[in-house]
Amino acid sequence: MSEISAMEGEKTFKQWKKQCLNKLDLSKKGSVDEDINTVVSSLNKSDNYFTTSSCSGRIILIDGVSDCVDVQKQNCSWLFVTHKKCTKDEVMAALEKSSGDAVLKFEPCVLHVQCKRLEDAQLLHSVAINSGFRNSGVTVGKKGKIIMAVRSTHCLEVPLSHKGKVLISEEYIAFLVGVANNKMDENLKRIERFYGCLRSALEPEEDKRCVKDTESDEKAVYRRRRRRRERDGAGSDCNVEQQSDSEHSDELDGQLGLFS
Amino acid sequence: MSEISAMEGEKTFKQWKKQCLNKLDLSKKGSVDEDINTVVSSLNKSDNYFTTSSCSGRIILIDGVSDCVDVQKQNCSWLFVTHKKCTKDEVMAALEKSSGDAVLKFEPCVLHVQCKRLEDAQLLHSVAINSGFRNSGVTVGKKGKIIMAVRSTHCLEVPLSHKGKVLISEEYIAFLVGVANNKMDENLKRIERFYGCLRSALEPEEDKRCVKDTESDEKAVYRRRRRRRERDGAGSDCNVEQQSDSEHSDELDGQLGLFS
To answer: What is the ipTM of this complex?
Structure first.
C-alpha cells in the first residue's frame, strides 16, 4: 500500500471512529454493559480499534408466537432480561406472563470491533480465540471497513411453555437457572481472560512482537506473564490454552488446527 | 500485489487444495453429510475455494459429567446423533442410558472454506449472510491462509437429566423434538438458499458483477432468478432478504447495518 493511501486510510478510519463514538447508543438498554466496560474502554483508547456494539452476555426469557412456521418473522416479547445471574423466582414470575411459547436463553458476550488494518483484526482475532471466543471472525465490507466480531458458542436455549401452558416443573426451572448461572460465570471468566490478553496485546511494540512469536520454546504470553510478575508482582489473566469443550465448531476447528 | 507474488499465491493455494482434498476424513462420521454434499462439491469444483470441514447440522444427545465446575475439561459421551429429524422414541431410548447430565442440542450447519483471495472470502461471506448464516466470518491466518466460516446462531440446548435422573416429562420431550425438527427444517432451507446463492455467485464474470451491484432498482438476485426462470422455467432458491429473527448477534448487526 502506498504511503499516500495509507495516510488516507488512517484519516478515513479516524473519521469513522469519531462519528461512531459520537453517535447515540441505539441498543434497547442504551448504555454499555458494566461487565464489558473495561474491554470497551481499552479498545476505544487504542488508535487501531473502536467498538461498534457490545453485550456482556445475558439471560433472557422471551415469548414467541405459538405455531409460527416462519421463524424469521415472528415477533417475540421480552418477559425478562438480566446481564447478571438470575433466580428461580425471577424466572417463574416472568413465565407467568407467557401467553405463547416462552424460551429461556443464555447468550454469551458479543463484541463488534472496527479495526484500522487487517493485521489489527488478526491480532484481535488471536486474542479472542485464546480467551475462549471460538466463533470469532472478521468481515471486510465495502469501503474497506474491517470488523472483528468476538463471539462464543457457549449458549442455552430451552422452551418452557407452549401456547402459554408451562411444560416443566419448578424443580426443573431451579436446575435450569443453576445451569444458566454457571454459563454466566464462565462467560465472565472469558471476558476477564479477553481483557488480560487484550492488555498484553496492546502493550508497546517491543512486547507486541511477542504475541506473534510462536517459534520460541516459551509461549509468548507466559513470557509476558513472567516479566509482569517480575515487574509488578502480579500475574496476567491471559490464558493462551485452546479451550477444548464440546462445542460444535470447536470440534471441527480442533481437527484442522485452524487457530494454532 | 505484483504479478510474480500473485502467481506464487495461486501455486501455494493449489498445493494446499490438493493436500487437503487428498487427506483422510478425520471427522467422527468419516464422510461428508448428505445434505451439504452439493454445496461442498460446488465449492471444491471452483478454482478459488475448497472446503476444510463441514456438517449439515445435527440433533445430538450428550451425557456430561455432573457438577463438573470446569466445563472445558469434561468429557461428554454421545448418546444419540442424527443429521436428519428425530423421533420422541429415539430420544427417550437414548436418555435411558444417561448416567450424568444429559443435554439435547440442535446444532446448525457449519462449513469451513479456504479461499484463494480475500475478495473470494468476501463474496462467499455475502452468500452466507444472505442465506441466513449470520454468524459467518473470515480468519486470515499465518502464511496467508484465508478461511471463511459459515455459521448460524440457530440452536437449541436443553438439559434433560441431572446425575442420571430425568427431569422432564414425556410430553415435554415430544414437544422438544418438534421444536428441534422445525429447526432442522429451517436449517435445510438455509442450506438450499446457500446453494442457490452460491451457484449464482460462481456463475461467469458477467453475472458475478450482479452480486455486488446494489445500486440498481431490481435486486440482483431477483434479476438472476427472473433470467433463470426465463431460461430454465425453474426459480433459484436464493433469498437475499436479511433474516430478522431474534438472534442476539442479528439484533446488534441489524442496528449497525453491518452487512448491508
So the answer is: 0.76
